[in-house]
Amino acid sequence: MYQKTVLPNGIRILTERLPYVHSISTGIWVGAGSRDESPNEQGITHFIEHMLFKGTEKRSALDIAKAFDSIGGFANAFTSKEHVCLHAKVLSTHLPVVVDVLTDVFLKSVFAQEEIEREKYVILQEIRMVEDTPDEFVHILFQEMFWQGNPLGLPIYGSAEAVSSLDRDRMLGYLDRAFHPERIIVAAAGNIEHQHFVDLVSPAFENLHHPGSRIQRVTPPDHQDVRVIQKDLEQVHLCLGMRGISLADEMRYACHLLNVVLGSSMSSRLFQEIREKRGLAYSVYSFSHSHEDTGILGVYAGISPENVRETLLVIKTQLHRLSREPIPTGELNAAKEYLLGSMYLNAESTDSRMNRMAKNEFLFGRYVTFEEVEKKIKEVSSETVLEWFLSLYEASDLALLLLGPADIDPEEARSILAKG
Hints:
By secondary structure, the chain is of the alpha+beta class. It has 16 helices and eleven strands.
């Protein structure tokens, strides 16, 4: 059962009671992320996320870690381009402890300058780790190219130069501006009573009052560039994409189904054609990265340098086919079962239920039932998918980035994608 309480200052408290489980997953969410940073703040949201576990007015970083370990709980945090979340999972009997620690971390962190300086080196190592992981780094480079000139295209962790320049005053200023009560959601899913959770949470949050400021997000235009970035690697990492779908767009179910058919499952067309039939790649998949106002529909493959041209041709052929032929009914129905199976299996996790509840509140201001989503998925027809894909697909306007020892120039790669 889902329930919602809004405190006088605008903070929303959400719960979903699942009496058949032993655990509770809870999270403190803020509707601000890396896309909301100004040029001199790049990486600050992610840095703040790190600092929230580095000590409060009454707990050291070690005390925080021991508090969770002593109750057999798990705690972590993440930053995305649109959100920050501190979350924990514990047995239901330990809910008062986890609420006390999480609220202390969120509201009373001290941001000691010596800890900030120490954590800079940790984040710089994190940046270098990503840059040394080409199958991950290629996506970051692709988004920078695709949404160039807009903060949505920049990496969540910022740049080494930006991170090195951040200090305590700038962090506290950003907190006052971005962590406004009306952007905060406290959510919990599991074996929980709503009013009990409200009684635990509200004393800490009800006195949170600071003016903040309005976050204005600008939807970025797409840039269909083709780039080859030479790097001494064993493989060429290919990332290709086009404008996708926003998280709230009514056509998102058509996009999800096409993505399953194209490359996000083992029976998908790209996986079968590129890996199973031709042996061109070990890792190949399609993806749909969505945000509140835009998204990317894309393809990734890690391939040998000599297989770049053939792989591009196969991808282009499969995209062209999807733009010309309706997906056969049997294949579409299998994709629907794949999505429904994933949704309902994830629903058995309290973490997943808590995340889903908070994200739907940010997007729609309400709880979205599983039955509603199932109905929407089942209603999608092959003609709907074809019509949606035709509205955005243009072979000559695909964006492409190749990272590695690619023996091909951008003009040739463009010509392969654009051929009829």
